[in-house]
What does this fold into?
Amino acid sequence: MSEKMRILTVDDEPDILEFIKYNLEKAGFEVVEANNGKEAVEKAQEFNPHLILLDIMMPEMDGIEVCRLLRENEQFNNTVIVFLTARNEDYSEIAGFDVGGDDYITKPIRPRVLVSRLKALLRRRVVEDSEKVLVFGDLSIDNEKMVVLLNETEVNLAKKEFELLNLLSSKPGKVFTRREIFNKVWGMDLLVGERTIDVHIRKIREKIGNEFIKTIKGIGYKFNF
It folds into this structure.
Protein backbone atom coordinates (compact mmCIF):
# COMPACT_ATOMS: atom_id res chain seq x y z
CA MET A 1 0.00 0.00 0.00
CA SER A 2 1.75 3.10 -1.19
CA GLU A 3 -0.79 5.48 0.32
CA LYS A 4 -0.50 6.06 4.06
CA MET A 5 -3.55 4.45 5.62
CA ARG A 6 -5.71 6.70 7.83
CA ILE A 7 -7.27 5.20 10.95
CA LEU A 8 -9.79 6.82 13.29
CA THR A 9 -9.73 5.32 16.80
CA VAL A 10 -12.74 5.83 19.06
CA ASP A 11 -12.82 5.04 22.79
CA ASP A 12 -13.91 6.87 25.94
CA GLU A 13 -10.82 5.68 27.83
CA PRO A 14 -7.82 8.03 27.20
CA ASP A 15 -5.25 5.42 28.22
CA ILE A 16 -6.54 2.99 25.61
CA LEU A 17 -6.56 5.65 22.91
CA GLU A 18 -2.98 6.62 23.71
CA PHE A 19 -1.87 2.97 23.71
CA ILE A 20 -3.55 2.24 20.36
CA LYS A 21 -2.29 5.43 18.73
CA TYR A 22 1.30 4.75 19.77
CA ASN A 23 1.27 1.25 18.27
CA LEU A 24 -0.55 2.17 15.07
CA GLU A 25 1.67 5.18 14.36
CA LYS A 26 4.70 2.99 15.03
CA ALA A 27 3.35 0.63 12.34
CA GLY A 28 3.11 3.50 9.85
CA PHE A 29 -0.54 4.50 10.06
CA GLU A 30 -1.89 8.05 10.28
CA VAL A 31 -4.11 8.17 13.37
CA VAL A 32 -6.82 10.53 14.62
CA GLU A 33 -8.68 10.00 17.92
CA ALA A 34 -12.22 10.55 19.13
CA ASN A 35 -13.43 10.25 22.73
CA ASN A 36 -17.12 9.53 22.15
CA GLY A 37 -19.64 8.55 19.50
CA LYS A 38 -20.73 12.05 18.54
CA GLU A 39 -17.15 13.20 18.09
CA ALA A 40 -16.44 10.03 16.10
CA VAL A 41 -19.08 10.91 13.50
CA GLU A 42 -17.76 14.48 13.17
CA LYS A 43 -14.10 13.45 12.87
CA ALA A 44 -14.92 10.67 10.43
CA GLN A 45 -16.49 13.22 8.10
CA GLU A 46 -13.45 15.50 8.37
CA PHE A 47 -10.69 12.86 8.34
CA ASN A 48 -12.27 10.39 5.87
CA PRO A 49 -10.42 7.38 7.34
CA HIS A 50 -9.74 4.13 5.53
CA LEU A 51 -10.53 2.26 8.76
CA ILE A 52 -12.37 3.08 11.99
CA LEU A 53 -11.54 1.22 15.21
CA LEU A 54 -14.68 1.70 17.24
CA ASP A 55 -15.36 0.87 20.88
CA ILE A 56 -18.88 -0.45 21.48
CA MET A 57 -19.52 0.63 25.06
CA MET A 58 -19.49 4.44 25.18
CA PRO A 59 -21.74 7.04 26.84
CA GLU A 60 -24.18 9.19 24.85
CA MET A 61 -23.83 7.23 21.59
CA ASP A 62 -22.50 3.67 21.54
CA GLY A 63 -20.44 2.11 18.77
CA ILE A 64 -23.40 0.27 17.24
CA GLU A 65 -25.28 3.53 16.68
CA VAL A 66 -22.14 5.26 15.34
CA CYS A 67 -21.66 2.46 12.82
CA ARG A 68 -25.31 2.65 11.80
CA LEU A 69 -25.07 6.39 11.16
CA LEU A 70 -21.83 6.09 9.20
CA ARG A 71 -23.16 3.29 6.98
CA GLU A 72 -26.13 5.50 6.06
CA ASN A 73 -23.64 7.96 4.53
CA GLU A 74 -22.26 6.99 1.10
CA GLN A 75 -18.94 8.59 2.06
CA PHE A 76 -18.24 5.56 4.27
CA ASN A 77 -19.40 2.77 1.94
CA ASN A 78 -15.83 1.53 1.56
CA THR A 79 -14.57 2.36 5.05
CA VAL A 80 -13.53 -0.65 7.12
CA ILE A 81 -15.24 -0.55 10.54
CA VAL A 82 -13.80 -2.73 13.31
CA PHE A 83 -15.45 -2.98 16.71
CA LEU A 84 -13.31 -2.96 19.82
CA THR A 85 -14.92 -4.46 22.89
CA ALA A 86 -14.20 -6.18 26.18
CA ARG A 87 -17.49 -7.99 25.95
CA ASN A 88 -17.91 -11.47 24.54
CA GLU A 89 -21.69 -11.78 24.17
CA ASP A 90 -22.88 -13.16 20.85
CA TYR A 91 -25.68 -10.63 20.62
CA SER A 92 -23.27 -7.68 20.53
CA GLU A 93 -21.35 -9.25 17.66
CA ILE A 94 -24.56 -9.97 15.76
CA ALA A 95 -25.76 -6.40 16.32
CA GLY A 96 -22.42 -5.06 15.09
CA PHE A 97 -22.45 -7.09 11.89
CA ASP A 98 -26.11 -6.22 11.30
CA VAL A 99 -25.27 -2.50 11.13
CA GLY A 100 -22.33 -3.00 8.78
CA GLY A 101 -19.30 -3.80 10.95
CA ASP A 102 -16.46 -5.70 9.26
CA ASP A 103 -14.75 -7.37 12.20
CA TYR A 104 -14.29 -7.56 15.99
CA ILE A 105 -11.23 -7.23 18.19
CA THR A 106 -11.56 -7.95 21.89
CA LYS A 107 -9.74 -6.31 24.79
CA PRO A 108 -7.18 -6.66 26.27
CA ILE A 109 -5.38 -5.54 23.12
CA ARG A 110 -2.22 -7.28 21.93
CA PRO A 111 -0.38 -4.74 19.76
CA ARG A 112 1.11 -7.15 17.23
CA VAL A 113 -2.20 -8.95 16.75
CA LEU A 114 -4.05 -5.63 16.42
CA VAL A 115 -1.68 -4.29 13.76
CA SER A 116 -1.69 -7.59 11.86
CA ARG A 117 -5.50 -7.80 11.82
CA LEU A 118 -5.94 -4.20 10.69
CA LYS A 119 -3.37 -4.59 7.92
CA ALA A 120 -5.13 -7.73 6.69
CA LEU A 121 -8.50 -5.96 6.65
CA LEU A 122 -7.05 -3.01 4.74
CA ARG A 123 -5.39 -5.32 2.21
CA ARG A 124 -8.72 -7.02 1.65
CA ARG A 125 -10.39 -3.65 1.07
CA VAL A 126 -7.72 -2.64 -1.43
CA VAL A 127 -8.30 -5.86 -3.37
CA GLU A 128 -12.06 -5.35 -3.30
CA ASP A 129 -11.72 -1.79 -4.57
CA SER A 130 -9.27 -2.65 -7.34
CA GLU A 131 -10.18 -3.26 -10.95
CA LYS A 132 -13.13 -5.65 -11.04
CA VAL A 133 -12.18 -7.69 -14.13
CA LEU A 134 -8.61 -8.70 -15.01
CA VAL A 135 -7.97 -9.97 -18.54
CA PHE A 136 -4.89 -11.98 -19.58
CA GLY A 137 -5.29 -13.15 -23.16
CA ASP A 138 -7.96 -15.87 -23.14
CA LEU A 139 -8.21 -15.79 -19.34
CA SER A 140 -10.43 -13.31 -17.49
CA ILE A 141 -10.93 -12.99 -13.72
CA ASP A 142 -13.92 -11.12 -12.34
CA ASN A 143 -13.18 -10.55 -8.65
CA GLU A 144 -16.60 -9.01 -7.98
CA LYS A 145 -18.65 -11.92 -9.35
CA MET A 146 -15.95 -14.50 -8.51
CA VAL A 147 -16.07 -15.82 -12.07
CA VAL A 148 -13.13 -17.07 -14.15
CA LEU A 149 -13.45 -17.54 -17.90
CA LEU A 150 -11.00 -19.40 -20.13
CA ASN A 151 -11.67 -19.14 -23.87
CA GLU A 152 -15.10 -17.73 -22.91
CA THR A 153 -15.92 -20.88 -20.93
CA GLU A 154 -16.47 -20.61 -17.18
CA VAL A 155 -13.89 -22.37 -15.03
CA ASN A 156 -15.24 -24.00 -11.89
CA LEU A 157 -12.92 -22.98 -9.04
CA ALA A 158 -13.41 -23.61 -5.33
CA LYS A 159 -13.53 -20.48 -3.15
CA LYS A 160 -9.93 -20.71 -1.92
CA GLU A 161 -8.70 -21.58 -5.41
CA PHE A 162 -10.33 -18.41 -6.72
CA GLU A 163 -8.92 -16.28 -3.87
CA LEU A 164 -5.44 -17.66 -4.50
CA LEU A 165 -5.63 -17.06 -8.27
CA ASN A 166 -7.09 -13.60 -7.69
CA LEU A 167 -4.25 -12.70 -5.32
CA LEU A 168 -1.49 -13.82 -7.68
CA SER A 169 -3.08 -12.18 -10.74
CA SER A 170 -3.60 -8.88 -8.90
CA LYS A 171 0.14 -8.18 -9.38
CA PRO A 172 1.49 -10.04 -12.43
CA GLY A 173 5.21 -10.70 -12.14
CA LYS A 174 5.34 -10.16 -8.39
CA VAL A 175 6.70 -13.10 -6.41
CA PHE A 176 4.37 -13.91 -3.51
CA THR A 177 6.12 -15.80 -0.73
CA ARG A 178 4.41 -18.82 0.78
CA ARG A 179 3.98 -16.95 4.07
CA GLU A 180 2.43 -13.98 2.26
CA ILE A 181 0.01 -16.23 0.37
CA PHE A 182 -0.92 -18.05 3.55
CA ASN A 183 -1.60 -14.83 5.47
CA LYS A 184 -3.66 -13.21 2.74
CA VAL A 185 -5.72 -16.21 1.64
CA TRP A 186 -6.04 -18.31 4.79
CA GLY A 187 -5.36 -15.72 7.49
CA MET A 188 -6.16 -16.99 10.98
CA ASP A 189 -7.09 -20.53 9.84
CA LEU A 190 -4.54 -22.50 11.85
CA LEU A 191 -5.83 -25.89 10.61
CA VAL A 192 -4.29 -25.38 7.18
CA GLY A 193 -1.37 -27.72 6.52
CA GLU A 194 1.94 -26.80 4.92
CA ARG A 195 1.10 -28.47 1.60
CA THR A 196 -2.27 -26.75 1.25
CA ILE A 197 -0.93 -23.98 -1.01
CA ASP A 198 0.79 -26.53 -3.30
CA VAL A 199 -2.38 -28.60 -3.59
CA HIS A 200 -4.47 -25.55 -4.49
CA ILE A 201 -1.89 -24.39 -7.06
CA ARG A 202 -1.93 -27.85 -8.66
CA LYS A 203 -5.73 -27.82 -8.89
CA ILE A 204 -5.75 -24.33 -10.42
CA ARG A 205 -3.19 -25.39 -13.03
CA GLU A 206 -5.30 -28.43 -13.91
CA LYS A 207 -8.20 -26.09 -14.67
CA ILE A 208 -6.54 -23.12 -16.43
CA GLY A 209 -3.23 -24.59 -17.64
CA ASN A 210 0.34 -24.48 -16.39
CA GLU A 211 1.49 -21.31 -18.15
CA PHE A 212 -0.13 -18.73 -15.87
CA ILE A 213 1.39 -19.62 -12.49
CA LYS A 214 5.15 -20.07 -12.11
CA THR A 215 6.83 -21.75 -9.14
CA ILE A 216 9.75 -19.84 -7.61
CA LYS A 217 11.64 -22.65 -5.94
CA GLY A 218 12.16 -22.18 -2.21
CA ILE A 219 10.20 -18.90 -2.17
CA GLY A 220 6.66 -19.08 -3.53
CA TYR A 221 4.70 -18.35 -6.70
CA LYS A 222 4.04 -15.61 -9.23
CA PHE A 223 1.47 -14.96 -11.94
CA ASN A 224 3.25 -15.18 -15.28
CA PHE A 225 1.88 -13.04 -18.14
About this structure: The first strand starts at residue 6 and ends at 10. The chain has two domains: 6-128, 131-223.
